[in-house]
Amino acid sequence: MSRIVLPVVVTANDLFDGDPVWLTPGGNWSRSLADAEVIGEAGLAETRLAAAVAQANRVVGAYLAGVRPGPFGPCPVEFRERLRVRGPAILTSGLCAAE
Amino acid sequence: MYAYAEFDEDFVRARVRQFRDQVERRIDGRLTEDEFKPLRLMNGLYLQLHAYMLRVAIPYGTLNSRQMRQLAMVADRWDRGYGHFTTRQNIQFNWPRLRDVPDMLDALADVGMHAIQTSGNCVRNVTADPFAGAAADEIADPRPYAELLRQWSTDHPEFQFLPRKFKIAITGAEEDRAVTRAHDIGLRLLRQGGETGFEVSIGGGLGRTPMLGRVIRAFLPEADLLPYVEAILGVYNRLGRRDNKYKARIKIAVHEMGLETLRELVEARFVKTRAEFGGADRAMLAGIAGHFAPPASCHGPETIPPGSPAFRAWCDTNLTRHRRADHAIVTVSLKTPGQVPGDVTAAQMRVLADLAERYGHDDLRISHRQNVVLPHVRKADLPAVFEALAGAGLAAANAGLVSDIIACPGLDYCALATARSIPVAQRIALRFEALKLEHEVGPLRLNISGCINACGHHHVADIGILGLERAGVETYQMTLGGDPTVTAAIGERTGPGFSSDEIVGAVERIVLAYLDLRRDAEETFAEVFRRVGLGPFQQVLYEGGEATDAA
Predict the structure, then answer these.
(1) What is the pLDDT of residues A39-64, one digit of tens each?
(2) Do A79 and B472 touch (CB under 8 A)?
(3) For residue B252, what is the DSSP state?
(4) Labelling A14: which of A86, A93, B200, B327 has CA 20 to 30 A away?
(5) How many domains, chain B?
(6) Chain centroid offset of residue B427 CA
(7) Is B297 inside a domain boundary?
């Protein structure tokens, strides 16, 4: 927590299908980062993370991820998080002529 | 091939029942994630970047058509219609849902397959030469020994919590196609005087501290295999470091304690283990060996029928000499330029299963280079096999060439990765396809890993690429001169890394430099590298010059 640069969002993987999910202002989980609550205050981030970790029946491995504002909502700061938001670019390229 | 005995069947079914219960308890909250995680990993279930991933073992890379069809069914029914073959002869499903995994495991158990010990600090899937039982250069078939090791290591009570994961590879041929020197234990069958035995090496491994295995026993009589391997594991289990996971592999023990010390300890323990086994392993091996009889005789002409230029080009690259003059070993490339290396669709799996059943003695192999092998095909049947493969998008004539790239899943899938591997592999393969150069270049190994853990075996490639992240940007380091064979070598780093935009051009410059430097088409990349060293290649990479041979 101490090294996280604000603002942040709370993210995790869905327990049932493993999808990346983000915590919304209403305390629900969304599959879109655009819906995430952007948290600019360290104490609140701690509180939200603790609440997320407690939802072990819905998500796995909740953590805080840095974001910066973008034209369509928050954008991840970390490279890994950007890939996580985007999904594998090669999802269907293995499906070739045989299909 | 080996068929499950009642014991195997009961064990695997019991494990699926246990795991089904564990999944239920995780979902209803009786198990926390911390409690559940080691249980799911013991059953091959990872949580990756975008989804769960189920890693299924293909013991020593061997499948029959029924198993391949079942993998296709699993991919269609519970995943997204494809699977990914790995460098350790496993298949990974990238999109399973937690609730479905017990059903997937039950479906796998229906055909004698499982995901046990494909993760965790235990003995992993034992890998072997994909041409086993077929290669002309084979001394003895390694598969019965691999199966014996599989049975011995599966759920072995002493070795479920080793200091770190433990990988064993075995080959029975003169050429090492199983990268034995990059494994914790590497086994090479030898014949000495009329006796069959093993050269045993230990302490090989890639990852952040790449090391080649060192020979602990130059000749181990084959009858002593299990007691000796158990002695090695026993010593490692007791003395391997548990204080630091990065120093926990047996290679670090070899490095820190010295091979001689370790050898003495292993030999002392071996005296006890050999007495303890008391011949039970020999009886088991005798039972197993019967499952690996050569395929029923099926004669044909010793020449390959004529065909189109495409067919002939494919024969030139994708066939290997079989022990029988009227047969060939077919490598089916999963590296059609632009495709994801090692990915295969369910439809393709079914085509491969059909071909194995009709033309290949019901035998399929997965190679560590992430291709599929039909080990026994009559030469007379090659045109029909080629035709069917071409219809399924599986007829790329590039086995062993520069576009036959090993690539780990990288940051497109893997939670540990630091950079993407797959798009780099795709772009390099497409570039060389456009250049129409790779047949002139000849055999050349190019391997890509998306992080320091080196699942893509970049250290042992002629050209190795390691993807890293620097300040939010992917950068790709290059190593040259790695060798996975009996003349094994760890590649040397060329210097500063290349951006994603630069890396394809950098590879092209290296390949062109090799063409300039080699004395003739017979001189391999490894031979040129040993002769001229890194210098001329660095020149073309970093100084924009032409490669000059100062040697």
Answers:
(1) 999 999 999 999 999 999 999 999 99
(2) yes
(3) H
(4) A93
(5) 4
(6) 23
(7) no
